[in-house]
């Protein structure tokens, strides 16, 4: 039986917030839909450590927290943008859950501790193909531009994590990754399979000019 969960409340966020923080859009919602499709699977696994990279408004971290329920799961969210960390905290409070967003590049300060420990990893990355200068500028500015600029094939930031994924996932670990067709999801699948992981497109949708999908990458 499928599980249906309410979309987190983000009514507290203002136009001013969205000048600096990514406003949830179709890519955010396809990620929530993918998590909802897998809700029973995720609950059955009883995940202990769940991580979102690039939490933005906090909508996906909040949804994940509500999905796993008041359990012993720890939800860690990171973002490179300090406004996003503040907004994630406010979204958590507005939805009466607890999150402790960490301001950092990807998972940098946590890598050592998270090795082989991540049960659920969620990432809606900056996936838009751009030049390298735009990628580097937006990563350095740590503001709204960092929400989409993804460098070559839109994959430069995502690849950093994919290369480390085999070391990060726990034995039951699963990553949910948002992609667009320009990211070459088939190539991602081949690459992850060559690292001994299983990669499956669990949902696909056209949104305007974007062909979005969510890949589930797991050990089993
Ligand atoms: C497409 S937005 C997704 C936001 C939110 N998760 C959602 O689904 O609506 C990408 C997010 O990744 C963050 N981000 C970009 N580069 C990052 C990095 N190097 N480390 C951590 N977060 C990063 C951006 O600041 C932005 O909040």
TrEMBL record:
GO BP, one annotated term: methylation
Subcellular location: Nucleus
Main location, first listed in the record: nucleus
Record-level Gene Ontology MF annotations: nucleic acid binding; protein methyltransferase activity; S-adenosylmethionine-dependent methyltransferase activity
InterPro entries from the UniProt entry: DNA_methylase_N6_adenine_CS, Euk-Arch_PrmC-MTase, SAM-dependent_MTases_sf
Keywords: Methyltransferase, Nucleus, S-adenosyl-L-methionine, Transferase
Cellular component terms per the entry's GO annotation: eRF1 methyltransferase complex; nucleus
Similarity annotation: Belongs to the eukaryotic/archaeal PrmC-related family.
Stated name of the protein: Methyltransferase small domain-containing protein
Species whose genome carries this gene: Kwoniella europaea PYCC6329
């Amino acid at each position: 039986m499928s599980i249906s969960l309410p979309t987190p409340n983000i009514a507290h966020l203002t136009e001013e917030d969205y000048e600096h923080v990514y406003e949830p859009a179709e890519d955010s919602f396809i990620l929530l839909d993918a998590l909802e499709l897998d809700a029973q699977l995720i609950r059955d696994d009883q995940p202990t450590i769940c991580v979102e990279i690039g939490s933005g408004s906090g909508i996906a971290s909040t949804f994940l927290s509500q999905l796993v329920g008041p359990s012993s799961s720890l939800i860690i969210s990171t973002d490179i943008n300090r406004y996003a960390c503040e907004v994630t905290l406010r979204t958590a409070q507005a939805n009466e859950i607890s999150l402790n967003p960490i301001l950092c590049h990807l998972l940098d300060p946590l890598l050592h501790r998270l090795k082989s420990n991540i049960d659920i990893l969620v990432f809606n990355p900056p996936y838009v193909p751009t030049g390298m200068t735009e990628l580097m500028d937006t990563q350095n500015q740590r503001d709204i531009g960092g929400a989409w600029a993804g460098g070559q094939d839109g994959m430069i930031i995502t690849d950093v994590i994919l290369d480390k994924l085999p070391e990060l996932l726990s034995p039951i670990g699963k990553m949910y990754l948002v992609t667009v067709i320009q990211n070459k999801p088939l190539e991602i699948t081949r690459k992850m399979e060559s690292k001994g992981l299983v990669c499956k497109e669990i949902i696909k949708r056209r949104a305007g000019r974007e062909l979005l999908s969510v890949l589930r990458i797991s050990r089993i």
